[in-house]
Every structure is written in structure tokens, then in C-alpha cells.
Amino acid sequence: MGTNDNMSVSESQQSGQRGRPSVSSNHPSIGSQDPAQDGFNLDPPKRLTPYERVTEELNNDSRALKEITLGKRIGFYRIRNELGTGNFSQVKLGIHVLTKEKVAIKMLDKTKLDQKTQRLLSREISCMERLHHPNIIRLYEVIETLAKLHLVMEYAGGGELFTKITNDGKIPEPDGKLIFTQVVSAVHHMHSKDIIHRDLKAENIFYTGAGLVKVGDFGFSTYCKSDEHLNTFCGSPPYAAPELFKDEHYVGMPVDIWALGIMLYFMVTGVMPFRADTVAKLKKCIIDGQFTIPNHVSSQCQELIRGMLKLDPSERLLAEQLTKASWLAGQEFPPAHRSYHLTPSFSRDSATEEELTVLEQLKQLGIQDEQLAATKDKDSRDSITGTYRIVLHRCQRKEIEDSIRAAIEAQQSANQATPTKKKSKRKSKSVNESNKPSKLCSLL
């Protein structure tokens, strides 16, 4: 809003008097007179709700309009610094102006999207909408302009698992169990919905807090039944299953399991199981399937890695079997969120207690029932739906993610109480050196 919209009653009175005939001295002043008797309407200006204020800004505020022109604002989001870039997209930090929630905004240039990329993007949106798990990045809203498409997602501010391992070296097994348990739980949820990720790697596992991680980047995800065959090569070569290199088609879910095996190996050793200077040599290493596991890795962890890195896809462990692995015994696998409505146009009779709480919070922001009902056929392409999903996710985080954090903190405290061998400086140096990106990783 402009400054004129915020004038006090007294300021309104003064401005109202300017340009009027002067009042005679023997007439009582307006300030001491009953306004109703004089015919003046001095009702205070209507106080706008937070939602009305933001809408007013977007339509009439010169500063907001300038931010939109400069690419510093889109819809209800102010755009901040860049988080990352890809071939067709860049990811920036955003702030939802109504809730002050930080979000990640994936921006895609529509002029560079061919038909294949558009299909992948459509699947990415569809798959994310179907997944309701605390260890999976959430999609809030999709905003389309003439030139760009914006995917507004949950922000994970703790960085990538890959960066942590590259900088700090291998992860101790007790800590590795906490992380891998969450990733397995997320993948199990995906596969139970007939969704495969096809690009699982340490670069796509994001920290949102101490020990709490989320699977993200569903750009190559797709629907696939357990016995259905696919024929599109996706993902990063170091994590690619052997059948992707030698067969014309493959079954989807075992490809994700292979990638989990590579990821776990990388977590507990700090290096990749298959290493080469070129993609051609890497391909041969993977097809041969020969790798060794350092002796410091526990036998139970070795057994789990080998169960995921079977050359024959039909012999690999299933996601459900991973949850029962002896190495992960005693770990708590975070459950999926309870089923919830994707848009806020639902009847209150069918709402959960959690959703009713969210509706009340939306009402406090100034979003009325008729505005909620208007979101019925808009899916994720609506600012009110985006606001609803953000507020709902806050409630879910409070309930589920706080319990996950408590379990993680308890386990970490137990781990710290257990004495560990002190590493020599020389060994620490060698581990860090081994984690420098190879020529292959730099190319990829």
C-alpha cells in the first residue's frame, strides 16, 4: 500500500477540510461537533487483512510492480539469492510474503523446453504432488508467466549430502544409519506409489537440519509398475545400474535400489565403488560389477551394500527389504504423512483436525471461504493453494519432523557417549584427498 492509504483519522479530517469553504468563527469546530449532525462520515478507513494487503501491493504498489519487472518477485514470493543452476533452469531462494516461509524456486526458461523436457517437467510436478512424506521435498505451487515456469518447493537450507562428504570425508556408520534410514523410508514411499526417482545420488539428498535429510530433484521421476519396463536412460553415470548400459529396456525400481547401494558405499567410505577417468571406462567397470569394500566397514553394512549392488536386477533387495536389513535394526523409519487434500476447496466435514487448524490460520490471514472454494480446479497453479500447502506443511513439520529430530538427537547423544578411536592427521588428510571431485565428476 502507498502512504496515503495509512492516514490516520485526524489526517483524513485535515485533508477533507482543504478545498472546503472556511467555517465561520461563531460556528462550533468540526472536532467538537457530533459528525452525524453535520452530515460528515468519519468512519475510519477499512483495515486490510494480510491477504488483501498483499493483493493490493501486487496490483497498485509501484515498488512491488518494479520488483516484478526486475525479476525480484513472482506472485506471493520475493526472490532472493541464487541457490543453484542446471541446463535449463536455475534455483533461487524465495520468501513467501504472507507466511514469511523460505522456499526454493526452480525457474525454467520456456523457450528452451523441447517436448521431451516438457513431458519430464509434467511428470516431475505430478510425482511430487502424489508423494506425502517428511523426507521428500514438498511442492507448494506452480507459477507460469509468458517466458518462465516457476516451481515453488520446500527449502532445505543445510546443503547437499555430497558436499558434506566431499568436505568432511566419510560418515561414521552410526550417523550414516540415521541418514540412510530416512532416505530408504522416502524411497519405500515412492515405490509404494509406483513412482521411481531415476536420479538418486548424494547431490540430491538435502539437509534441512542437524541429521534431518530430504530427497529432492524429481526431474527424471516417472510412474512405473514393479514389472513394467522403461527405455529412457536417466540419471548420473556413476550411479547408473549396469542394465542401463547394456539393455534396451529396464525395470524401474531396481535401478533406484542400485543407486542407493552406490550412495551408501560413498557415505561410509568417502569414495565411489566404481571409478574411472572416462565414461567409457566407467561403463565397463559397472558392467563388470567388480568392487571391493574397505575392511573398516562393518560386516552388516557390507552385506547390505552387496545386496543392493547385485548385477542381476531381479536379485537386488526391494525397498521394503531394506527396512528390515540387520544393519538398520533398531532404527525408526519415519512414516508417511496422513492423507491430506491438495487444495483447500474441500468440505469441512471431510477435513482432518490438522486441516481444520490450517483453515483457521488461513482465515486469520484474511482468506475467505469463497476464495478457498475457487481453488477447486486450479491444482498447484494458485496462490491461495500455495499458501494453504505452506501452512499445512508447517503443521505437519511440527508434528512429525520434531519427533524425527528428537530421535536423531537421542541417537547422536548415544553415539557421542560411545568412545571412538582417534584418527591420525595423516589418515584424515588421505580421506579428504580421496574426496576431491574426479575428472569424471567434474564433467558430469
From TrEMBL:
EC number: 2.7.11.1
Biased composition (Polar residues): 1-35, 410-419
Protein's GO biological process: intracellular signal transduction; microtubule cytoskeleton organization
Catalytic activity line of the entry: L-seryl-[protein] + ATP = O-phospho-L-seryl-[protein] + ADP + H(+); L-threonyl-[protein] + ATP = O-phospho-L-threonyl-[protein] + ADP + H(+)
Residues given in the record as ATP binding sites: 106
Cited SUPFAM superfamilies: Protein kinase-like (PK-like) (SSF56112)
Family membership: Belongs to the protein kinase superfamily. CAMK Ser/Thr protein kinase family.
Protein's UniProt name: Serine/threonine-protein kinase NIM1
Organism field: Holothuria leucospilota (Black long sea cucumber)
